[in-house]
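for the writeup, i need someone to sanity check this before i put it in the appendix. the sequnce is what the collaborator sent (i think, or maybe the updated version? ugh). structure was predicted straight from it, no edits. if anything looks off just tell me and ill rerun, i have time this weekend
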Amino acid sequence: FDYIIKMLKKENHNLRLTALEVVYDLIPQIDKKFRFINNLRKLFASNISTSVLPAENYLNIFPIN
């Protein structure tokens, strides 16, 4: 999970999009109290800028409740 968090912070669009797709698939399957979920919440809350890539914007708004 730490690797996924690292990839979400990369400048490379392809790496970030791939990591976001993995997150999109994993979120429904993971216990919401898991440390990975808390790290994602912090990361997404601190990154409110929009991307030039529509797919990245869509994946960034996935609810982590």
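Residues 41 and 63 are 9 Å apart (CA to CA). The chain has a mean pLDDT of 84.
thx in advance!!
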